[in-house]
Amino acid sequence: MAVVATHQFAQCITCHVWSPDQTMVAFCPNNNEVHIYKLIQDKWERAHVLQKHDQLISAIDWSSRTNKIVTASHDRNSYVWNQEGAEWLPTLVILRLNRAALCVKWSSAENKFAVGSGAKTVCVCYYEKDNDWWVSKLIRKKHSSSVTSVAWHPDNILLATTSTDGKCRIFSTFIKGVDTRDSGTSIPDSKFGEQIVQLDLSSTWAFGVKWSPSGNTLAYTGQSSMVYFVDDIGPSPVAQSVAFRDLPLRDVLFISERMVVAVGYDCNPMVFTADERGIWSFVRFLDERKLAPSGSKYGSQFTEAFGKFYGQSKQMGSDTVDPTRARGGAHENCITCILPLRSEGVTVVKRFSTSGLDGRIVVWELDSD
Fold it and tell me: What is the pTM of this model?
């Protein structure tokens, strides 16, 4: 059974992210601002509004170690926000883009971040202490269309990208003076911007790339209602394509090495798992309106703490797909973002959040059995 709780923060949410202690959530309400809400006595109250961009903010990320927020916008700019006292102060990042910035992610070590753009370019940004500013090195002439998503490998060197040219690519982002060769990367002698592999699995736009916790598996989605899983990244990767008959997906999240939750235009998170042979398949929707068969392994429930400040609406679950079922439930419009909510010292994701074009943020918790 799936129990879902939601909060209506805005009419539409472009993207969202959590503070390191998960007591604050930042999101873009489909404009040029970032709204930060803080949990105070079981109620969400708006604490800050970040105003610096001139156009729509397309992506945001909040570093867990350094407590810095990075934003990317259609105005072709990116800012790093530092909290000083009660204020968040922006620092402009020199991106050198002539098209919109579409996605942004901090690296695993949080000493770099990557910005994908409509200029067919990826900007890998790092801080120059001597000059007290953020600069970028550009990966050019590799993508033939807009870069829709970026994902950092746990080694802090490899970067995966997806593009509207239908391809997923993996690059080295080694920067001398910022990275070290003993980072544990499987490509120890790679240079900045070197393309490690290009995956041509999708014939349509590609979105939502993510690495598994170990970095051994990569997953991304295609506009043709397909999910792609890739193992053994290198000259001879092992790839699988999983087709489904529902609407396309926009983002994916590894719950564990063998479980993925994906979200998109169907307004309902979808669970994919791998069997003992490593074969991936669709399992179920998380927010179904039908009773799940007895013995269903995966379910969803909302924690009591979050339930106090989110309005709860219970929905039933099912492991079978009914083409006549009502779509949605917790979400009523496209889900564009899914993020993990990790507990300290726990590698397997038990809780995660989703946000969408309906202006809602939903927090889910998977059953432990």
Answer: 0.87
pLDDT at 288: 67
What tokens does 81 get? 């926000």
- In tens, the pLDDT along 133-147 reads 899 999 999 999 999
DSSP class of 170:
E
Compute CA 3 distance to the chain's CA centroid, rounded to the nearest angstrom: 23
Closest residue by Cα to residue 109 from 124, 91, 88, 87: 124
Nearest to 361 by CA among 4, 66, 121: 4
Task: Kindly list the distances between the CA atom of residue 88 and the CA atoms of 45, 107, 127, 308, in Å, as whole numbers in the listed order.
Answer: 17, 21, 18, 29
Cα–Cα distance measured from residue 262 to residue 227, given in angstroms and rounded to the nearest whole number: 9
Q: 188 pLDDT band (50/70/90 cuts)?
A: low
Radius of gyration of the chain (CA): 20
Cα–Cα distance, 26 to 21 (Å, whole number): 13
